[in-house]
Amino acid sequence: MEPIILFILVIGLLFLGVPVAVSLGLSSILLIAIFSNDSMSSVAIQLFTASQNYTLLAIPFFVLASAFMSTGGVAKRIIRFAISTVGHFRGGLAMASVLACMLFAALSGSSPATVVAIGTIAIAGMRQVGYSKEFAAGIVANAGTLGILIPPSIVMVVYAAATNVSVGRMFLAGVIPGIVAGLMLMIAIYIIARWRNLPAEPWKGFSEILNGGKDAGWGLFLIVIIIGGIYGGVFTPTEAAAVAAVYSFFVALFIYRDMGPMKDVRWVLETDSRTAKVGFSATVYILAFFFVWMILSFFVTADWEGVTLTGRAQLGGLIAIGLGLAYAAWRGESVAGIPHTLAAGLPVWGRNLSLMGRNFGRAFFNDETRKVMVDASKTTIMLMFIIVNALLFAHTLTAERIPDVITEVMLNYGFTWFTFLIAVNVLLLIGGQFMEPSGLLLIVAPVVFPIAMELGVDPVHLGIIMVVNMEIGMITPPIGLNLFVTSGITGMSLIQVVKAAAPFVGVLFIFLIMVTYMPAMSTWLPYSLMGPEIVNR
User: Fold this and answer.
1) What would the DSSP string read from start to end of 89-132?
2) How far apart are CA 134 and CA 492, in angstroms?
């Protein structure tokens, strides 16, 4: 009787227009207070426990990192790199938009942030070369969903918190499915482009790929820091999120200078001599290589005996200096002029370091920095309010033994892992049309997880299936968040965006079937690197 009352309360409150978080929390409190034998003190204990969850602490840091990366001009650099890589194919600009979404997804962990950051630039660019607005909007709305599948993913963190599955394994499990989903969208675009005779960008050579990669390198290196740091054993996913937030702040304000007190102030000025520019670039390459070397070598050799910080620094320093000198000789006047070339770049360093020193304190309190912090705080509060109330709802389900009852019923009716996964997909596809991904996942996961374990479904595989369902939910009406975001940045009506996205939703449905019944796609990489997930039943 209690389960029926609980679900009636939730559905009734939702139909009355009560916010999802309040509906979940209020229905749980009413059931415990009136119908359950559970104590009301359990509500306070559960809310406190949920708010103290260490895994969930990663969410505000990933949100903040995403906010700085979205505002800091990283998107336009990633788009340039993507265009230089695949733009020369038929329909290349649309394919580049998908690749840019994949790369930005690996920085943000958020689907709406990916749509806003990439879509704002990519859709306008596609329109300029002859793509229809509908086609461009449909591409970005679908490709943006990769933001929650390619690690780091906020939704994966939520699933890990709800089921006590390893966040690290979940992140690794999303790598191959994320790449496959992106490639499937690109193949679909190429087929449509050949059919519609869509334009291709001119091939600009490998030098443009190198220049685009160099320009986007500081942003893309965040992927290495997060993934390499976690799997190199340097820090936990939560610590990785904190490092990502600090790094994103530094890159946005001090390296790219797309926001803050040094906004649009270039490192190298037109008035600088050619020799000074070459000398400055040579020293930048020396420092950048040494920085990357020290981080990557630490990730790789963290558990090696006999490898010391001094040894790594000496070897990396020698290689970096050698590369810098080679560049100075190549771009400079002669080998004999290398010292003069390097010395000519020192005033450029002095000017920039002086500028950064004068503006270091102001960078923390600048209006744009404050806006990013406030926006990230609002997003974090919204997510955490939903998550805490959803965890209270999950506690109520567990206290009333609802998952156990459902498990028993399904086993009695002869459900196998095959039919069970069909039921999970149908449930999540329907629920995803009406609820925010994190809230829905926290409601469904505690119910289906015990059943999945009983039927032998892998916990990491189940998590990826649920994330892919959340992807599709974000581009299906009436509550698909990506649809609203795309509508906002294009000025199209919601109905127009739904029609534009529909053909590519079919591609994601095919992808969902592949992920559901090809578990190795999700489990091979994490289990090869980290071993199998151990679940205590």
Assistant:
1) STTHHHHHHHHHHHHHHHHH--HHHHHHHHHHHHHHHHHHTT--
2) 9
Residue 184 CA, distance from chain mean position: 19
CA pair distance 220, 208, nearest whole angstrom: 17
Q: What is the pLDDT of residue 458?
A: 92
Residue 520 burial by CB count (10 A; 0-12/13-18/19+): exposed, middle or buried? Answer: exposed
pLDDT at 143: 92
Q: Which amino acid is at 530?
A: M
pLDDT band at 536; cut points 50, 70, 90:
low
With H, G, I as helix, E, B as strand and everything else as coil, classify residue 487. helix
The two most distant CA atoms of the chain are separated, in Å, by: 88
The 10s digit of each residue's pLDDT in 36-73 is 777 777 778 877 777 777 888 888 998 898 888 877 57
Interatomic CA distance for residues 153 and 459, integer angstroms:
17
Amino acid letter, residue 13 = L
3-state secondary structure of 405: helix
Residue 187 neighbours by CB under 8 Å, 6+ apart: none
Asked if residue 537 has pLDDT above 60, the reply is no
The per-residue pLDDT for 370 is 92
pLDDT attached to residue 507: 93
C-alpha 342/C-alpha 348 separation (Å) is 11
Bond preceding residue 152 cis, omega within 30 of 0: yes
Q: Confirm if 50 and 389 have CB atoms less than 8 A apart.
A: no
Dump pLDDT digits (tens) for 119-154: 888 888 888 888 888 899 999 999 999 988 998 888
Which residue bears the tokens 């912090």? 373
Nearest to 165 by CA among 395, 458, 521, 383: 458
Distance CA 526, CA 174 (A): 9
Model's pTM, two decimal places?
Answer: 0.87
Q: What band does 465 get if pLDDT is binned at 50, 70 and 90?
A: very high
Whole-angstrom Cα Rg for the chain: 25
Q: What tokens does 405 get?
A: 């009852």
What is the DSSP code string of 180-210? HHHHHHHHHHHHHHHHHT---PPP--HHHHH
**All residues at 6 or more sequence positions from 345 whose CB lies less than 8 Å from its CB, including other chains:** 276, 277, 278, 279, 280, 281, 282, 283
